[in-house]
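retry 2 of 3: previous attempt timed out while embedding KGT. Reduced batch size to 1 and resubmitted. Inputs unchanged:
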Amino acid sequence: MPRGRHRIACAQMTSTADFQHNLQTVTELCKRAKAEACEALFLPEAFARIGATDASYAEPLDGPIVRACCALAKEYGLWMSLGGYAERDGDGRKRFNSHVMIDPRSGEISGDVYRKIHLFDTDAAVGVDGGGMRESDYTRAGTTLASYDTTFGKVGASICYDLRFPDVYQALRFEHEADVICVPSAFTKSTGQAHWEVLLRARAIETQCYVVAAAQAGKHGETRESYGHAMVIDPWGRIVAKMDDPSNEVGIAVAEIDLALVDSIRTQMPLAEHRRRVRAEF
Ligand SMILES: O=C(O)CNC(=O)[C@H](CS)NC(=O)CCC(=O)C(=O)O
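retry 2 succeeded.
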């Protein structure tokens, strides 16, 4: 695999409950990514549908959402990171929040599905209405990490609230040997303002990976608003692409993934060699 430069597109969109409407947006973003000569398009969490707090719109991996995206990946020649969609669980009572990577060469799912491990349960006043959120009421937590061999390096998966748990990123870097980590999100406006950029940059710096953070932005309906600010960060912690303010714009932030930069930063500062397993002692 060439350790060179690769253009990728990081999406920002305002999904609704209507899959057909969201699919039109995704198609438009594919066109723009292709016009910008990108190899990949990263979509945010809940790109296909947002809003339900039950498992009603969950689908299996061979359902309409993933099938439509496989066709787009093939048509536009783009790796597609499906940031998170409601995947049907066995008995249909709960869903998984699942990340899927699609390989444009086959038009099929690449590698393992990543099912969001950390679920967003909080009483903090995060919604437009000041209500909390209880993702675990309708979502089953995943238990294993996943990473993907792509033409632009090894991509590790995480989703949204996972961003607050650095162990995920340490494992993706040091066990999965990721070069790029995606953090597709639907961050709330209030927590996003406080924490989004600093957490993303910290994860990039401490893993020496590119961090690609596709984001939901703006109002999804009466009660829900997302922070936006989709961005790509390089392994030195620099923001190399970002959606402009006002942050509720739909579009792509285009960045170059320079795998030679990943290698040189890791040579200059060899965290993999210096890392110690630290345990609290009492
Ligand atoms: O599944 C869907 O429909 C969309 N999913 C989400 O919006 C998820 C679970 S409610 N949101 C987050 O994880 C926000 C985390 C966050 O905002 C923080 O960590 O501060």
